[in-house]
Design a protein that fits this description.
four-stranded mixed β-sheet, three-stranded antiparallel β-sheet, 7 strands, 56% helix, globular
């Protein structure tokens, strides 16, 4: 997930919402490339926020059954989309027309439930946060048990994100939001032009985005959706604390700090997963452990492979062997595909994006293990969040573990 709170980010006055211009020619060229595809978060928020505030959504009653129906429709739609695509491609016998009609009907049923589902899930998350003593970022000083900021999110496909990294190191130097609907051909066309500027780029899909209201993808599982809605709210919560504010400065390019970005993303990941698990256990016990555990240890370890790849790439780049690193990544991409793990493009920008999440297999940062240790030694989830929220460096994290 990514932080992009426009109301605060506008203070940065930075080009493309991604970085302060230190290379005017590069930024000008980048802007001309992305202009036809760019997504305006400010414009979207100005339209969506009043709709949320005055929509009259209600989630006060126990409507877990409505949420369950919604996610049943999500699974039916995904299955039918796959079948329709197979028939249309000639890989399966049948007539696509009745399948498309049925798909349209299911989509309409899902759309009719969306507003209520958003309200119900928001209420359930808010109640669990309150049970954990997490109300608002000012509750330690003013002692008001009032939820703030309001937990608002939209079940809607988030924008795509263009991530730009230098070729000689792994670091996100520009991030630009692009349209929600992009074909693979359009993504690769954008990447090709941006790569022509002498950098490494990648267009990625997002599971959520911390705008206000937040985006949460509308075709994921119940557990993912609840986790993501909680995570995006936590990003907004932390903006009012030192850790989150420093992450805002990083995300807008005013003050880049990779450790802070990793700490912030990992903290909200840990807290949101715990909150999400409690919500599911409390309101949707039938959805717990629906995936059977593996019966035996898999022969291929994707996580280990990705960490080894990341370390090897870092070593190549440290020696200045950029072409060799890129050839190595492409070879690894093809190898992973042969093992059943398809990655469209594996490059420096891929690692720059995914490496921010310390629990990701592409991360080699020790911050993930350190924050897990901090959580284990914290008496409560709120204590963990409060401690982490006031950190301004990784050294603060190290000191808290002594």
């Amino acid at each position: 997930m990514r932080l992009k709170l426009v109301v605060l980010a506008l203070l940065s006055l930075c080009l493309l919402g991604g970085s302060c211009a230190t290379a005017p020619d590069f930024d000008s060229s980048l802007k001309s490339i992305v202009k036809p595809y760019q997504f305006s978060i400010a414009r979207w928020e100005l339209k969506a926020l009043p709709e949320e505030l005055f929509s009259g959504k209600r989630g006060s009653d126990d409507k877990a059954s409505v949420v369950a129906s919604y996610f049943s429709l999500v699974e039916q739609i995904k299955s039918l989309e796959a079948e329709t695509a197979a028939v249309s491609a000639g890989n399966k016998a049948g007539d696509a027309a009745p399948l498309e009609a049925e798909l349209d009907n299911l989509q309409q049923q899902k759309a009719a439930l969306t507003n209520e589902v958003e309200a119900v899930i928001a209420r359930q998350i808010r109640e669990v946060l309150a049970e954990q003593g997490i109300y608002n970022p000012l509750d330690n000083s003013i002692r008001l048990k009032v939820g703030f900021p309001p937990l608002l999110f939209r079940l809607e496909p988030p924008p795509h994100l263009l991530v730009v990294s230098p070729r000689d190191r792994i670091e996100s130097i520009r991030e630009v939001e692009l349209q929600q609907e992009l074909s693979v051909a359009e993504m690769e066309g954008i990447e090709g032009q941006v790569d022509g500027l002498g950098v490494s780029s990648l267009v990625v899909g997002l599971g959520g985005l911390s705008t206000y209201p937040a985006f949460v993808m509308d075709d994921a599982s119940l557990q993912f959706t609840i986790n993501a809605a909680a995570e995006e709210w936590l990003h907004a919560y932390l903006v009012f604390k030192p850790l989150g504010f420093l992450y805002l400065l990083d995300s807008t390019g005013l003050s880049r700090n990779y450790d802070i970005a990793t700490m912030n993303e990992t903290v909200v990941g840990i807290v949101s997963k715990e909150i999400g698990n409690i919500v599911v256990q409390k309101y949707y016990p039938g959805y717990e452990n629906t995936t059977p555990p593996p019966t035996e240890e898999p022969e291929f370890d994707f996580n280990r492979e990705m960490r080894e790849t990341r370390r090897a790439v870092d070593a190549y780049l440290a020696r200045g062997e950029i072409s060799q690193a890129e050839e190595f990544m492409e070879e690894k991409r093809q190898y992973l595909a042969s093992e059943g793990y398809y990655i469209r493009k594996l490059n420096q920008a891929y690692f720059a994006f995914h490496g921010t999440y310390a629990d990701s297999p592409t991360s080699i940062s020790p911050i993930g293990a350190e924050l897990k240790q901090l959580r284990e030694q914290s008496p409560s989830l709120k204590d963990f969040l409060d401690t982490a929220a006031y950190m301004t460096s990784r050294q603060d994290l190290i000191n808290s573990l002594k």
